[in-house]
Amino acid sequence: MDRTTQLTTRRPGTDVRRAGAVYDPGVRAGSLHRGAAEVLEGNWTGTSTVPSRRLYPHQWSWDSAFVAIGLRHLSPLRAQTELETLLDAQWGDGRIPHIVFNPSVPLEAYFPSPDFWRSSTAGRAAGAPRTTQTSGIVQPPVHALAAWLVHRSDPGLSRARGFLSRVYPRLAAWHRYLLHRRDLGGGGLASVVHPWEQGMDNSPAWDAPLSRVTPAPARSFRRADLDHGAAEDRPTDLDYGRYVRLAADYRDGGYADGRGGFAVEDPCFNALLIASEHALARIAAELGATGTARDARAERLTAALVERLWDPAQEMFLCRDVIGGALVPERGVSGLLPLLVPGLPREIVSALVRTAHGPHFGLGGTTRLVPSYDLLGEAFDPHRYWRGPAWFNTNWMLERGLRLHGELGRADALRTALLETAGASGFAEYVDPYTGEPCGALGFSWTAALALDLLHQDDHGRRGGDGPDDDDRHHDDRHHDDRAGFDTCDMSDQGGDRG
Fold it and tell me: Which UniProt keywords apply (predicted)?
């Protein structure tokens, strides 16, 4: 079985560090770089990158944004293509769908499949594409940040292709959709209307809001995910039935927002919206316009984030159940990720750092990587999907946030742990937070891409072409190449990069 698509077999108690496959900055960087590049090449379709050949055989929205962030170090052209392919499936109302379906993949390979979503018919009033089949829900808005970072990796190529001038109107429309159609709580933040939209599908933070949803009958759907993953690691049938019911009701309502039984303001989703608003300001300035209004909007969003989701007693952000009106008292990794926000008050930054490294998440102490859920929570399970395992994208965001706010020692330690674990786990989808034991699919695209991004970090914390906090400091137009000492794989002349 190909290494980019096989699934792991759990070995209880295995400590990957003791197994001998440990990242060493001076010895293993080259092989780690080659391995990550091979994963991205193996998962490339010619126009986009699948997260996993078997388990996730289509294009996913925030996956592609993270993939582009890593691909920019190998082929800026391919990174641009990744984002352009996704944006080609954007709906008329501005939403970027969370899945763009590959018509060559059999319907039974993934559920919910295109015939469930019926985007071209059920989504007609919302401007769904007529010829491209997509889902009808969205995922976190990391896209503008990804587009800016991709541009900065090779500004000359980006300008020659008109990359930013083509993607900017689409990204602006995406943000308008979130800021206007999805402000369901009236407090200025975007709401998710399905757990799949937030990206952390099975988080215990959804349990209370989901309890109002009557699940779809088990006989009305088939769980393709169980063909590839262990049932004890995946969402329960009851939760999955609720996911299906929510999605079907949203579809049957023409994908109109504000009518369903689930609406949650999530800290990570809105933190990424804020970071991407700042990125849109920089894109606007690059195109000769002013980004002042967007920076001001990002500041207003930051104030709303603090006002509506910060819990000083818990020393972290919490989700807000918009329908019920209250904060959800569950500590998930999402509540740490507003560290991505540049203008966060210092006392909140300090509290978040304490929480990440304290008993609930154990970073730098009991855990190798920050878990997806509270170690002390009743629902914690180190292997069940988003109920405890550590994910590479959330830890990448946390590393970036720590570095942004000057926590350089902690950021460096997390970077080292991420690189160790990515290589030792075979670029796993997610891992046991204590041991680094791989779970889910191996050869997972965003794990490989974000490992590449961390490998391309210089001594000042910069990735190639961007600053440590993507701030307003001046960048020259040279493509900063910090690949010295790494065995690189330049993919710019391989299939899919031309035309």
Answer: Glycosidase, Hydrolase
Q: Alpha helix locations (H) across 177-226?
A: 195-198, 207-210
Task: Report d(CA 216, CA 223) in Å as an integer.
Answer: 13
- Tell me what the mean pLDDT of segment 274-283 comes to: 98
For Cα atoms 76, 78, 84, give the angle at the middle one, nearest 5 degrees. Answer: 105
**Whole-angstrom distance, CA of residue 482 vs CA of residue 385:** 35
The whole-angstrom separation of Cα 390 and Cα 131 is 37
Residue with more model confidence, 248 or 498 = 248
> What letters, b where the CB count within 10 A reaches 16 and e where it falls short, cover 229-261?
beeebbbeeebbbbbbbbbbbbbeeebebeebe
pLDDT digits (tens, 9 = 90+) for 403-448: 999 999 999 999 999 999 999 999 999 999 999 999 999 999 999 9
Q: Report phi then psi at 132, rounded to 5.
A: -105, 125
Q: What is the C-alpha separation between 225 and 458, in angstroms, rounded?
A: 39
Cα–Cα distance, 434 to 215 (Å, whole number) = 33
pLDDT of residue 477 exceeding 70, the answer is no
Judge whether 370 and 336 are in contact, CB under 8 Å: yes
Give the residue ranges of DSSP H helices in 192-291.
Answer: 195-198, 207-210, 237-252, 267-286
Q: Does residue 66 carry a pLDDT above 50?
A: yes
Q: Are 78 and 46 in contact (CB under 8 A)?
A: no
For 471, the token pair is 């701030």
Nearest to 249 by CA among 58, 112, 386, 99: 112
